[in-house]
Design brief:
- The protein has helices at residues 20-28, 47-52, 61-67, 79-83, 101-110, 131-150, 177-188, 203-208, 237-250, 274-279, 325-343, 358-363; strands spanning 2-5, 32-36, 56-58, 70-72, 90-93, 113-116, 158-160, 163-165, 169-173, 192-196, 212-213, 256-259, 285-288, 305-307, 313-315, 364-367, 370-371.
- The protein is of the alpha/beta class and 381 residues long.
- Helix 1 links the parallel strand 1 and strand 2 (32-36).
- The longest helix is centred in the middle third of the chain and has 20 residues, at 131-150.
- Bound molecules: nicotinamide-adenine-dinucleotide.
- It comes from Actibacterium atlanticum.
- It is a multi-pass membrane protein.
- Residues 4-139 form the Alanine dehydrogenase/pyridine nucleotide transhydrogenase N-terminal domain.
- Keywords: Cell inner membrane, Cell membrane, Membrane, NAD, NADP, Nucleotide-binding, Oxidoreductase, Translocase, Transmembrane, Transmembrane helix.
């Protein structure tokens, strides 16, 4: 069978779902590989590098979609791409199944099988295919780099002949995958790093990375995420008030705030209010990684960078992984390659779409003319 990656058509998207390295691995699984001309260019992978890796370079998207049995993509397909699906073809891509009924109906009508990368179950065995985590890791790292780029001062404290420089103080709100990556990046650059999460079980992880966990003066325990499969759920009003009071206290002290707080299938909680922004020092920076879901900061504008009247920069970009397209393409293409390894137990270049396999079942959203989303919970944790 042949697997191919078209050039992403979402405006500004620089990632690609197959790299020359991942193609070499896919060939070891028995597959022929193809890309559309220029598919990897924006991520730093020229056509010649693919050709050297034995990848066929196909001139147009239409021809690529026609020729391959498996299409690997990054972004959810648009209408033109959905029309290119045919019976028995497999698409592996982010697909947003929860908010893409029309896409699932289109794939079902065509008889195509769709594997949605955001649906890979978060169980240990599937970590190597977990594209949400690999992309969140990059977003967290890049958020700190972006903050540094907009912050006119050092992260680390210095004593120099020209004067003493205090270290920057960074607050990371939300210590999931992206938040932990931001914490690690911030501490390694030498900033004093504080972190808060509603799940107290992450405190130890935060502290082991050299950051300080922010506890609330609150009678109830910070929520135990074990009840919700490790994810946060909505907070009580009292808890929220205590959280906001703590943030209000910290706002004048911190130089950089990175917010990453999300609750699955909901708009992002608003945690950094207008008065907190107003209380921050001029030159401070907020990077809101929740911008795509409405933002954790009241003043965030998705996809934009704004500077407030009191001189606070608020970055609301929603494309951090694409801004590091070489790295993110390498990791995403590796996630896809591992998914393909799961789908090809015999390494014979033939897909064995085993719906009894927890990971494959969990991620499959259409199969043989049926919509198979949402999946049953995985049998193994
Ligand atoms: P996420 O992107 O859904 O949320 C980011 C963080 O925001 C979470 O830590 C959440 O607790 C926090 N948050 C939500 N509301 C908040 C609030 N009001 N204030 C402060 N913080 C708030 O999270 P994620 O990065 O996808 O990770 C969620 C969970 O999944 C974690 O327990 C993580 O360890 C787990 N996980 C497991 C695997 C695996 O086993 N393969 C892989 C990745 C993540």
């Amino acid at each position: 069978m042949k697997i191919g990656a078209p050039k992403e058509i979402f405006e500004g998207e620089a990632r690609v779902a197959m790299t020359p390295d991942s193609a070499r691995q896919l060939q070891k699984l028995g597959y022929d590989c193809a890309i559309e001309t220029g598919a990897g260019e924006a991520a730093g992978f020229a056509d010649a590098l693919y050709a050297e890796a034995g990848v066929e370079v196909i001139k147009t998207a239409a021809a690529l979609w026609k020729e391959v049995d498996i299409v690997a993509k990054v972004r959810q397909p648009n209408d033109t791409e959905l029309k290119r699906l045919t019976k028995g073809k497999t698409l592996i891509s982010f697909f947003n199944p929860g908010g893409n009924e029309a896409g699932m109906e289109a794939a079902k009508a065509k008889g195509a099988n769709v594997i949605a990368m955001e649906m890979v179950p978060r169980i240990s065995r599937a970590q190597k295919m977990d594209a949400l985590s690999s992309m969140a890791n990059i977003a967290g790292y890049r958020a700190v780099i972006e903050a540094g780029n907009n912050f006119g001062r050092f992260f680390t404290g210095q004593v120099t002949a020209a004067g003493k420089v205090p270290p920057a103080k960074v607050l990371v709100v939300g210590a999931g995958v992206a938040g932990l990556a931001a914490i690690g990046t911030s501490t390694s650059l030498g900033a004093i790093t504080l972190a808060f999460d509603v799940r107290p079980e992450v405190a130890e992880q935060v502290e082991s990375m050299g950051a300080e966990f922010v506890y609330l003066d609150f009678e109830e325990e910070q929520q135990d995420g074990a009840a919700t499969g490790g994810y946060a759920s909505v907070q009580s009003e009292e808890f929220r008030e205590a959280q906001l009071a703590k943030f209000r206290e910290l706002a004048p002290e911190v130089d950089i705030v990175i917010t990453t707080a999300l609750i699955p299938n909901r708009e992002a909680p608003e945690l950094w209010t207008k008065d907190m922004v107003e209380a921050m020092k001029p030159g401070s920076v907020i990077v809101d990684l929740a911008a795509e879901k409405g933002g954790n900061c009241k003043l965030t504008v998705a996809d934009e960078k704004i500077v407030t009247d009191n001189g606070v920069t608020i970055v609301g970009y929603t494309d951090f992984p694409s801004r590091m397209a070489s790295q993110s393409s390498s990791l995403y293409a590796t996630n896809i390659r591992h998914m393909m390894a799961d789908l090809t137990p015999e390494k014979d270049g033939q897909i064995n779409h085993d719906m009894e396999d927890d990971v494959i079942r969990g991620a499959t959203v259409t199969f043989e003319g049926e919509i198979t989303f949402p999946p049953p919970p995985p049998k193994v944790q």
